[in-house]
Design brief:
Number of strands: 10
Largest sheet: 4 strands, antiparallel
Bound molecules: zinc ion
Number of helices: 6
Strand order of the largest sheet: 1-6-7-5
Strand content: 15-25%
Order of helices and strands: HEEEEEEEEHHHHHEE
Distance between the termini: 26 Å
Structural class: alpha+beta
Helix content: 10-25%
Radius of gyration: 20 Å
């Protein structure tokens, strides 16, 4: 399943990284020679001020006007050396793409499939990171406004699910939480030109499914792990995503899987209109 991590998974990682990294100095950076990471060595010698999140990106402002930008891709994970069975010689210690020597700890970035990205930019300068530079509002902030969402959704002329996945209407929603929010709002993934009432229902459902998953520390199918190596607990609560053939909890109709905009999409053909 190539969908995670999305906003709740990245936020769960952030909540474990921030207290450990904020205020800590990066003494040295070591990179896998094959990793194509942009200028990450520049982080050496700088202090991490905080670990924040925008959409699916982790953002760590550094002193000296720099910023470390991190994207987990599909299989990226951070682990502290020597904790929770993560150490050279232990089972599973592999695929380390970057290592940060901090004042009081060593942090590894592990990534089996290599879709993860690390880079250092001038603080706030995301011009070279297209998705981040054009990211829509944070769904759990006041910036995610129902009236504006309705207008911008209509303006895309796209079907609603592919429109959500562009990240421009709202940040951080991927395949899992798009399917879940559309089911909850009873909106079909291929619907266009939503009425204000339906758009408002979807706006509310997006916030709810993301907030509930953050409470459960995200959805783990296989690869996603938090910094302590533990899985999230949201997978057992999914109603639509990955549930094709199961009965819709609202009306018992068999959930259907189709491909929409190149992505597997599961929905109820009866109650989602
Ligand atoms: Zn249904």
């Amino acid at each position: 399943m190539g969908s995670v991590p999305e906003l709740p998974e990245v936020e769960s990682v952030r909540r474990q990284l921030h207290p450990r990294l904020a205020g800590s100095r990066i003494r040295a950076v070591h990179l896998d020679p094959q990793a194509r990471f942009g200028a990450v060595e520049r982080a050496a010698g700088h202090r991490i001020e905080a670990v924040r999140r925008r959409g699916k990106y982790l953002l760590a402002p550094l002193d000296g006007g720099l910023e470390l930008v991190m994207h987990l891709g599909m299989t990226g994970a951070f682990r502290f050396r020597g904790e929770d069975g993560w150490a050279p010689g232990e089972a599973g210690f592999s695929h380390v793409r970057a290592t940060f020597e901090l004042d009081a700890a060593v942090l590894d970035f592990r990534d089996v499939r290599r879709f993860g990205r690390l880079t250092v930019v001038a603080a706030g300068d995301y011009a070279g990171i297209e998705t981040l530079s054009r990211l829509g509002p944070e769904p759990l902030s006041d910036d995610f406004d129902a009236a504006r969402f309705h207008v911008e959704l209509a303006r895309t002329r796209m079907a609603v699910k592919p429109a959500l996945l562009t990240q421009r209407l709202v940040a951080g929603v991927g395949n899992i939480y798009a399917d879940e929010a559309l089911w909850r709002a009873a909106v079909a993934p291929y619907a266009r030109r939503l009425s204000r009432g339906r758009s408002d229902r979807l706006h509310r459902a997006i916030r709810e499914v993301l907030a509930e998953s953050i409470e459960r520390e995200g959805t783990t199918f296989r690869d996603y792990r938090m910094v302590n190596g533990e899985s999230g607990r949201n997978a057992a609560h999914l109603v639509a995503y990955g549930q094709a053939g199961r009965p819709c909890p609202r009306d018992g109709t068999s959930l259907r899987k189709v491909v929409l905009g190149g992505r597997g999409t599961t929905y109820c053909p009866r109650c989602q209109r």
